[in-house]
Amino acid sequence: MHIMDKKVKGITCNSKKVKDGFVFVAIKGESIDGNDFIEESIENGAVIIYTNKDISDDRVSIIKVDDPRKELAKLLNEFYGYPTEDLTIIGVTGTNGKTTTTHIIESIFRKAGYKTALIGTLGVKINDQYESSVLTTSDSTLTTPDSEKLYGLFNEFKERNVEVVIMEVSSHGLKFHRTYGVDFDVAIHTNIEIDHLDFHKSFENYLKTKKMLFDSLRRNRLAILNIDDENATKLLEGNRNVLTLTYGLNSKSSITASSINVQETLDFTVCLQRNISTYNGKVYEPQEFNISMNLSGLYNVYNSLAAISCALYFGIDIDVIQKALKEVKDISRRFEKIYEKDYTVIDDFCHNPASYQAVLDTVRGLNYNKLIIVNAIRGNRGIEINNHNASVFSAWHHTLNYPRVILSLSKDVVEEKDGVKNEELEQYRNMFNNNSIEYEVYENLNDSIKQSIKYASKGDIILLLGPQGMNKGKETFYRLLKDS
Questions:
Q1: Beta-carbon neighbour count of residue 129 at 10 Å?
Q2: pLDDT for residue 195
Q3: Which of 215, 315, 338, 387 sits at a 20 to 30 Å CA gap from 474?
Q4: 0.85 cut: is pTM over it?
Q5: Which tens digit of pLDDT belongs to each residue from 443-484?
Q6: What confidence tier does 194 reach under pLDDT thresholds 50, 70, 90?
Q7: What is the topology classification, in CATH, of domain 83-327?
Q8: CA-wise closest residue to 120 among 431, 246, 106
Q9: Helical ranges in 397-472 per DSSP H
C-alpha cells in the first residue's frame, strides 16, 4: 500500500506502536487526545499523520480529515486488502441477546460444516477454540473490538481459511466507527430497549446509532428484524436497498413460534408462514418443525428464531438446525447454571431493565423453595438506568414470593471506572424503602456471595446478577464453596 508515494508498513492510532514507515492517525478519545502524541509518533518513525486539526510539520506529511476514526477504519480496510469482501460477515446488534444469538448462529454453521469465527463480549473464537492470545486485556472489555484490532482479525481469519464470521455489533462500536467499511452480508436486530443513556444521552440517539449497521448494508444484503419490537422498522427507514426477513411471535412475522414450553428446558415449534428464499435461490415453503433446547427462557425463543432465520437464508438444512440447537449449552453469564446440587446457582449478565425483566420472568417458571438474589449494582452508568433497574426488582418482588435481596458494590473486584456512586446506590435504597422491600448492602462481592451461601438451603435458587461487578461472581462462589 502506498500513500503519497510513500510505502506504508503499518497503520495505528497508538503512538507507541508506531515503527518506521507507519501511518499514525491522531484520534481524540474521551480522556486522551491522540494529537498530543504526534511528536512521539514522528520520533518512532511515522511517515504520514492523519488528524482533524490544522497542524504542519516539515518532517512528515500531514493530512487533515473530518473524522479520524472513519479514516482509520478506511485505511486499515485498504491496507489489509478489503478482507471482509472475501468473508461472509453476520452482524448482530441489539440491547440484549447479542451474545446468545451469535453463539447459536455459530453453532448452526459449525454443525453445517462451515469454518467459523466468532467476535463478541466473551472474546474471539475460531472454529472450536477461544483464542486467548488474540485480544489484549483492554480489547477484551470491548464487545466490538476497535477497528485496528478488528481488521487485523479479519485478515487473520482469511489466512486461516475462515468462511463465516459472526460478530456482536455494539452501539459503542458503531458510534466510534469501529466497523466502518465492514462488508456485512447480514445484519440482525434482536431488540432495542433503554440502555447506555449515559453515553448516548437519549434513546433517540441510541436508536439512530443502532440504525448505522443497517444503513451500511449494500444492495440486496439481508436485514433480519424482530418484528415484535416496535423500534424494528425504524432501523430501515429510508433504506430500500436491502432484503428483509422478520421473526417474532407476531402473526405478521415471516418466521414465528408456537406451542412454546418454557420450563427448565425449551421446546417450541417453528412456523414458516410464507416462502423463505435463500441467498442462492433455494426456497423453503411454509412449514413447521420442532425445536428442543437445553436453554430456558422466552427470550431464548427470540434469540433462536433470529439464528434460525439466518441459517435458513443460507440454505442450511432443517435437520442440521434442529441438531445444532439441541447441542447448544449454557453460555457464560447468560442465565448460566453454575451449580446444581442441594441448591441451584444461576449467573447472568443483567445490566438493563429488559435483561432483568427477562431473567426474573424466567425464574418465575422454575421450581424453588426460596429465592436469594445477589445484585451487583451497575456502577458509573448514571442514576436513570439504576432507577429503572431498581424498579424492575420492585415490580417482581411480590410475584417471586419476596426473595432475599443482597446489593453489592463489588469494590473488591471492579475497576475505578465501574465503581458505584452514592447516588446510584440511592436509587435502590429509595425504591426499596418506598416499597417496603427488605435488603442488605455489602461493599465487597466476596461478602455478598458469602452471605447468600449462608442463607441457601435445599431446593433454593441463588441468582448472581449484574454486569462488571458480577463478572467474577462465578469464581468467587466456587472459591467460597471450596473453602467452606
A1: 8
A2: 61
A3: 387
A4: yes
A5: 999 999 999 999 999 999 999 999 999 999 999 999 999 987
A6: low
A7: UDP-N-acetylmuramoyl-L-alanine:D-glutamate ligase (3.40.1190)
A8: 106
A9: 422-434, 445-455
